[in-house]
Amino acid sequence: MPIYAYKCDACGHAKDVLQKISDAPLTDCPACGAPKFNKQLTAPGFQLKGTGWYATDFKGGGAAATSAAAAGTASDAASSPTPTPAAGSDAPAATASAGACAASCACH
Fold first, then answer.
1. Would you say residue 78 lies in a domain?
2. pLDDT per position as a tens digit, 66-85
3. In which domain, by residue range, is 10 found?
């Protein structure tokens, strides 16, 4: 339920009231009884910052940050040469076509 700020135009009494959205607005001041109790325009209690709000923002402890970093480095990995394994290494060479990126990228 939202909290609405009210102020009396007659006596200046101010009060925050927890009401349902479907409730009728209050009109009578609880301090002086005058029918001058009006809702005030206030700022919301939260702000949405950043590039957007996505379903994946909080899944898996930072999946959005990981996918954003991977998306940013995918173009770098495609344009950079593919690293080769060191001599005597049993590790296969990573290729850009296989979806692997360079060892110096942000995801390693």
1. no
2. 555 555 555 554 555 555 55
3. 3-39
